[in-house]
């Protein structure tokens, strides 16, 4: 999460003291992005993903490694996550909150909630977004770099097929 000073809090275990340390760092790169560093949290992310399609179909080794390759992003209600006509380089999964997905005319195409996947349309086709995604509630996203998404989709046909179907449904 982000503090009022726009600094990012990085949570990390403190092995010497036997407790968790929260460190405030200045914003760098994408705002609101926090790297997971605790095994318990990674396991919770893994279990969350496993409970939503298409992650449950991934091999255990891929599913187990996935959380450590993800970051989190907090988005306030009303903020745009993806914009029509813009490229996208990340794959996101809604952990908490809700989003509105609208076409270029502003028509509501879908309401996304916990477990909804975002950014796949541009990753599948490699083009600019045909949709805007706006947080209709405060949202916590799990974010995977697009290049890693492509690696997983390339070696797991059912995973990729899920998103091709999602693309057809939204179009």
Shape: globular
Query: For the largest beta sheet, what order do the strands appear in spatially?
Result: 3-4-11-6-9
Largest sheet: 5 strands, antiparallel
Number of H/I helices = 5
Mean pLDDT: 81
Element pattern in H and E = EEEHHEEEEEEHEEHH
Radius of gyration: 16 Å
What distance lies between the first and last C-alpha atoms, to the nearest angstrom?
34 Å
The unreliable regions are 1-29
Strand content: 25-35%
**Helix/strand structural class:** alpha+beta
Count the beta strands: 11
* Helix share, percent: 25-40%
Walk me through the structure.
The protein has 171 residues and is of the alpha+beta class. The chain is 28% helix and 33% strand. It has 5 helices and 11 strands. The chain has helices at residues 39-50, 60-65, 120-125, 146-155, 157-170, and strands at residues 8-14, 19-25, 33-35, 71-75, 80-82, 90-96, 99-103, 108-112, 117-118, 131-135, 139-145. A 5-stranded antiparallel sheet has the order 3-4-11-6-9. A 4-stranded antiparallel sheet has the order 5-10-7-8, with no helix packed on it. Strand 7 and strand 8 (108-112) form a beta hairpin. Helix 4 crosses helix 5. The model is unreliable at 1-29 (pLDDT under 50).
């Amino acid at each position: 999460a982000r503090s009022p000073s726009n600094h990012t809090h990085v949570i990390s275990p403190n092995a010497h003291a036997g407790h968790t340390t929260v460190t405030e760092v200045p914003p760098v790169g994408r705002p609101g992005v926090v790297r997971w560093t605790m095994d318990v949290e990674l396991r919770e992310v893994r279990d969350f993903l496993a409970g939503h399609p298409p992650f449950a179909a991934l091999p255990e080794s891929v599913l187990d490694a996935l959380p450590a390759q993800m970051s989190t992003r907090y988005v306030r209600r009303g903020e745009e996550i993806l914009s029509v006509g813009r490229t996208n380089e990340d794959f996101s999964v809604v952990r908490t909150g809700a989003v509105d997905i609208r076409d270029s005319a502003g028509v509501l195409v879908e309401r996304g909630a916990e477990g909804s996947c975002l950014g796949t349309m541009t990753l599948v086709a490699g083009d600019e977004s045909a949709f805007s995604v706006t947080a209709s509630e405060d949202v916590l996203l799990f974010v995977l770099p697009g290049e890693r998404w492509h690696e997983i989709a390339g070696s797991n046909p059912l995973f990729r097929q899920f998103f091709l179907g999602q693309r057809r449904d939204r179009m």
